[in-house]
Design goal:
This protein is of the alpha/beta class. The protein contains 17 helices and 17 strands.
């Protein structure tokens, strides 16, 4: 239990950090009301144009070593969480789930045939969604068996599943843990989101805090690496109940905790119901910008005190050898990754694409023997250079030699004015070979990395930023 004097220290540090964020807002880095868009892909995937698949793949070559990471999207959940901006179906839906899994496997076959691949050889796999474990044990077993007939797991270093607590509790959950273990799954990300029962109700989560904790112990008992995640800035959260949650989190015996900020307005195709809170018809207030930023700093301080350090952005681990290979390969190594399923996205060395978000379109494409891709982008040389900065910088660092290999440019020749300003304001550091975010830069990582987005891909219009030196619309030219 945290003492009053420790709490005062945490609050004082969080206030100090917020004062720095306000200063960055005056300089034009952070937008007028503090809203943000997570910089998770570059360019943002839902902003791509529709694409002709044959044209899109015409100049694509498979990686020389034949390896790629795999993402599989299972768009089913027990119920829809208030804050979630992913489209998906809720409830039992036994027949629909069977149908979807059948099409998912067929999509993998179409992909293999299209590229002339016998088996896809992953470095890592992520089964996400949605909630992959909302499948019945029988359907999960069937899916994993069919999936693994189409992949060569011999070099796969990490096999991940994202899930919600209730889906592995109880007898059926035990069967799912046994099945996942038998299929070689190594790491589970459990979306706890909160450990406060009132907040969990407002989130419309299908579990309470006790069940959430049970699921962590259950996963550990089966020998999985466990990563737990929380959302901050959600209605019902206060600085006090957030401190309590973070204290409980660091008391759990797993090695990885991630925290992410509530996003009220969707940044993709689907608007979650959280928007209703924003419009005032919800039953609790959304914490303001200042409280939200303070929650972030408080979480970081509590994690650091307990030996959890930020190794990949917003993921805190006790041991530096523990991290998501899938995220690291995609965002830092920038290796090829292929996605399957509704909204599944693929990130290749010089292009990105995303599958349709509409079930009927998805099924129709597969029935026609086509890949269900509906939007894609082959990056121009300039967008390639921006991509080679935004994602590695956000997640860990930009190695200048790798930047040169990926973009063809010397790092020191591009964005000279912008890089120099970001250094001047204490947001970037340059070791000579590596560019990385400072502690303050990491605190506002999305905003700093979006400085390198091209103007059509900036998250907010120019008037939403102060006309200071860090307004992202200024010095937004590759050679300046
Ligand atoms: S947050 Fe996760 S469990 Fe909740 S609706 Fe979204 S995908 Fe499903």
């Amino acid at each position: 239990m945290i003492t009053e004097s420790r709490k005062k220290e945490l609050l004082a540090h969080a206030e100090e950090t917020f004062a720095k964020v306000e200063e960055l807002q005056r300089l034009g880095l952070v937008c007028d009301d503090g809203d943000f868009v997570p910089s998770v892909h570059y360019p943002p995937i839902t902003q791509y144009d529709n694409c002709d698949i044959d044209e899109y793949f015409k100049t694509y070559t498979l990686p020389a070593d034949g390896m790629m990471d795999i993402y599989v999207h299972i768009p089913f959940c027990i119920q829809h969480c208030t804050f979630c901006h992913y489209p998906g179906l809720t409830g039992e839906r036994v027949e629909e789930k069977k149908k979807y899994i059948d099409y998912l496997i067929r999509e993998m076959d179409i992909y293999r045939e299209y590229h002339g691949i016998d088996k896809i050889k992953p470095r890592s796999i992520l089964l996400g969604g949605g909630t992959p474990t909302s499948l019945t044990p029988e359907l999960l077993e069937h899916f994993l068996t069919e999936f693994e007939k189409r992949v060569d797991l011999s070099a796969c270093k990490q096999y991940n599943v994202d899930l919600g607590p209730n889906s592995i509790n109880g007898e059926s959950g035990t069967k799912k843990c046994e099945i996942m273990k038998a299929h070689g799954i190594t790491r589970l990300t459990i979306g706890l989101q909160s450990l406060n029962d009132d907040v969990l109700k407002l989130m419309n989560r299908p579990h309470n805090s006790e069940e959430a904790i049970q699921s962590v112990y259950k996963a550990l008992e089966y020998g999985f690496d466990v990563n737990i995640e929380f959302i901050y800035g959600h209605p019902g959260e206060t600085i006090d109940n957030w401190i309590e949650d973070m204290e409980k989190a660091v008391g759990l015996p797993m090695n990885e905790i991630q925290v992410y900020r509530l996003k009220v307005q969707a940044y993709g195709d689907f608007q979650g119901i959280i928007n209703r809170f924003h419009r005032g018809s919800g039953s609790a207030d959304i914490p303001d910008f200042k409280s939200t930023m303070m929650m972030k700093q408080i979480a970081q301080d509590i994690f650091n005190e307990h030996g959890f350090n930020e190794r990949l952005r917003r993921v805190f681990t006790k041991n530096k050898a523990i991290f998501s290979h899938y995220a690291y390969n995609q965002c830092c190594n920038q290796f090829d990754q292929v996605g399957f399923g509704l909204t599944g996205f693929s990130s290749y060395r010089d292009r990105f694409d995303i599958n349709t978000q509409n079930f009927e379109e998805y099924y129709a494409a597969i029935d026609a023997g086509k890949l269900p891709i509906n939007r894609g982008l082959v990056r121009s040389a300039e967008e390639q250079a921006r991509w080679a900065i935004v994602l590695p910088l956000k997640n860990r660092d930009v190695r200048k030699t790798e930047f040169k290999q990926r973009s063809g440019y010397e790092f020191d020749d591009v964005f000279k004015t912008k890089v120099s300003l970001l250094k001047e304001y204490g947001l970037l550091e340059d070791t000579g070979n590596i560019i990385r975010l400072t502690e303050l830069g990491g605190f506002v990582a999305d905003e700093v990395c979006e400085q390198f987005n091209s103007i059509p891909y900036l998250p907010f219009p120019r008037e939403r930023y102060a006309e200071g030196p860090l307004n992202p619309y200024l010095n937004n030219v590759l050679f300046e």
